[in-house]
Amino acid sequence: DPVPIPDLTKCVIPPTGLPNNITPFSCCPPISSNLKIIDFEFPTFKKLRVRRAAHLNDSISIDNFAKYDKALNLMKALPDDDPRSFVQQAKVHCAYCVGGYTQKGYPNTELQVHFSWLFLPFHRWYLYFYERILGSLINDPTFAIPFWNWDAPDGMTAPSIFTDPNSSLFDPKRNPKHVPPKNTFSNYRDTIVDLNYNKDFDVPGTINPRPEVRINENLTWMYKQMICHAKTYRQFLGSRYRGGEEPLQNNCAGSIESLHNHHHVWVGDRRQPNGEDMGHFYSSGRDPLFYAHHANVDRMWSVWQTLRGKRKDCTENDWLESSFLFYDENKNLVKVKVKDSVDDRKLGYVYQNLDIPWINHKP
Ligand code: C2O
């Protein structure tokens, strides 16, 4: 069976997977007494929204970042119980990822959107609504979120628009060695992302390789996860996970999901008890970098669809008919299906067309 929507009326407080070294809290969305759920309809639009690389600083990009800063300030200013607020956006991830929900119709079965073929579609929908809400707050239907272009050499450090402490895009809970706030010192080589990062090996005194060495390792790793380890949808999307089934484990994740996990931990602040914000599912949605990171993960799905061979999206009903719930820009609760997420253009956006530097980095 397809994975059903969560049962909002039985949202678990606190979620079962919350770390026990923090004060427990609720990740449940606000719900009104008449729980009205509407079915998703494709948006109508005159022009596709274009998601652009976050490190670029041409005039269109600068303009777009100013819009993002403004929109996010407005989103952060909404009351905490408004489903469009930034607090609630972060809770969406918490509820779906650390045991906040059970599957509707299976009251004892946890709903989990990681470690399986739900990972890419769930996060695509999540960004879709996040972006639409931001656009509506500034009355600009063309607004598109930027992506962190970490698969290209120029994008391998945190984009500077996210590191200015005066910007709404800033979050103080990040590893200061990897993502230093603007104008604070860190060794350049430490600021280049390690797409295969393992914090257990990063002990005090560890010296990172020279930038060109790290960049090459990253490009090779991209090639592996996008091409060698992603020959079929099974390898790329992750394992099957169906309605009524218990969540899977980490080793069931698809090739790009595992790569993306390393990146989360690399950004997270090791001075915090659980690597908050980016280093734990319950808190990662609190860092605006999350949405830029995930936009690139989402972009990798669109890129993968253009690669050759047996790389075709899944056609299994249990995947296509799986569904999620999100609040939209009008505070309506919308039921969406995986099948409506497979084509980004139908959702009204595309990614800026850039060279894919790892395509020639066969290991
Ligand atoms: Cu839901 Cu990057 O994780």
Describe the protein's architecture and organization:
- By secondary structure, this protein is mostly helical.
- It has one domain: Orthogonal Bundle (di-copper center containing domain from catechol oxidase), CATH 1.10.1280.
- Helix content is 29%, strand content 7%.
- The protein has eight helices and seven strands; from the N terminus they run E-E-H-H-E-E-H-H-H-H-H-H-E-E-E.
- It has helices spanning 59-77, 86-97, 119-137, 211-228, 233-237, 255-267, 288-304, 317-320, and strands spanning 37-39, 49-51, 102-103, 106-110, 323-327, 333-337, 349-351.
- The protein has a three-stranded mixed sheet, with helices on one face.
- Strand 3 and strand 4 form a beta hairpin.
- Helix 1 (59-77) packs across helix 3 (119-137) and helix 6 (255-267) packs antiparallel against helix 7 (288-304).
- The termini are far apart.
- The relative contact order is 0.20.
- CU-O-CU linkage is lined by residues 93, 97, 114, 123, 260, 264, 284, 294.
Overall 3D geometry?
Answer: globular
Query: In the CATH scheme, what's the topology name?
Result: di-copper center containing domain from catechol oxidase
Number of helices: 8
Supply the CATH architecture. Answer: Orthogonal Bundle
**H/E topology pattern:** EEHHEEHHHHHHEEE
Q: Which small compounds were modeled alongside the protein? A: CU-O-CU linkage
Spans where pLDDT lies below 50 across 5 or more residues: none
Number of domains: 1
What's the gist of this structure?
There is a cross-link at residues 97-114 (2'-(S-cysteinyl)-histidine (Cys-His)). The chain is mostly helical. It has helices at residues 59-77, 86-97, 119-137, 211-228, 233-237, 255-267, 288-304, 317-320; strands at 37-39, 49-51, 102-103, 106-110, 323-327, 333-337, 349-351.
